[in-house]
Design a protein that fits this description.
The chain has twelve helices and eight strands. By secondary structure, the chain is an alpha/beta fold. The protein has one domain. It has a six-stranded mixed β-sheet, with helices on both faces. A two-stranded antiparallel sheet has the order 1-2. A hairpin with a 6-residue loop joins strand 3 and strand 4. It is globular.
Length: 295
């Protein structure tokens, strides 16, 4: 379940409706913005797996939701034995753990296990992708549509299927999140970037696979990366994700200067705003990205 579906299940559909009416030129009321950030924090802790959301809606007990997440993870791992003819179950488990550790960054097979050749894990990752437990985000140059035409199959990022499962597999400190302020959410495990990517994937048109990529320039003196590239009305839109309310946008400006994209997006914990050709959207609005780009 995406964030909007979570709000509906929690009896907060009216809050999502107000969110959809906001624009960079018409930000949300400060009270509503803070309320949505609070719900985002809860969603980051429990995720969108239906059993977990149902448990939360019934008890509002975040700790109980963690136990449900543990049972789901155990269930996934128990299923790995069914694929032992294709790849050892321990290798699948190691790869799933590596996805959690490397989520939101360039994935490296060599970082899965110490002293093990990375290439032996390729089949394991492919199985997890086909099973729907992992999403691959390929690198693209961003010079033309479709993005996949210039994608580099050897360079990609990965996202786990659910942010609740992700934070649970990482063992992130639950108390630290519960005590943090709404604009001080800890970004361990790249929670902001993982959330944004999963929201964009979940709310993509159901008739076609989501065209989600990332861009990176690697050079000795100048490295730059844009977290996501999306296509909206035939144009490529770079999306940069920032945890909290601060952060520079050098990579976003660099991409816009070297490509034909007319507009860029920054997702953060700020309210709606606009700076020239960059639209600032709250992180919780990631699932409505296409709606805001139409205006």
């Amino acid at each position: 379940m995406c964030f909007s579906e979570f709000l509906a299940a929690a009896g907060l559909a009216s809050l999502d409706a107000l969110l959809q009416q906001a624009r960079p030129e018409q930000p949300l009321d400060g009270f509503l913005h803070a309320k949505l950030l609070e719900q985002l924090r809860i969603y980051q802790l429990i995720g969108g797996m239906p059993a977990v959301v149902a448990g939360y809606c019934e008890s509002r007990d975040i700790l109980e939701c963690q136990l449900i997440l543990d049972r789901l993870i155990d269930g996934f791992r128990a299923d790995f034995s069914k694929y032992r003819k294709k790849t050892p179950e321990v290798r699948l488990d190691e790869t799933l753990r590596a996805v959690a550790r490397q989520a939101g960054t360039k994935f490296k097979y060599s970082n899965i296990a110490n002293a093990a050749p990375g290439r032996i894990y390729k089949d394991s990752l492919d199985l997890l992708v086909r099973a729907g437990l992992v999403h691959k985000i390929p690198h693209a140059s961003g010079h033309g549509v479709p993005l996949g035409a210039e994608a580099d199959a050897g360079k990609f990022k990965v996202l786990p299927v659910d942010i609740g499962l992700h934070q649970r597999m990482l063992g992130l400190p639950l108390g630290e999140h519960l005590l943090a302020g709404n604009t001080e959410l800890v970004n361990k495990g790249n929670l902001a970037e993982v959330f944004a990517g999963l929201e964009i994937i979940a709310t993509s048109p159901p008739c076609c696979a989501p065209e989600l990529h990332y861009w990176q320039r690697e050079s000795r003196n100048s490295q730059a990366e844009v977290d996501y590239l999306v296509v909206n009305n035939g144009r490529i839109v770079p999306v940069e994700v920032k945890a909290g309310t601060r952060g520079q946008m050098q990579s976003l400006h660099l991409f816009l200067a070297g490509h034909s994209s007319p507009v860029g997006v920054r997702l953060s914990h700020e309210n709606f705003a606009r700076f020239n050709n960059i639209r600032v959207l709250p992180l919780y609005a990631a699932g409505h990205l296409n709606r805001y780009l139409l205006h």
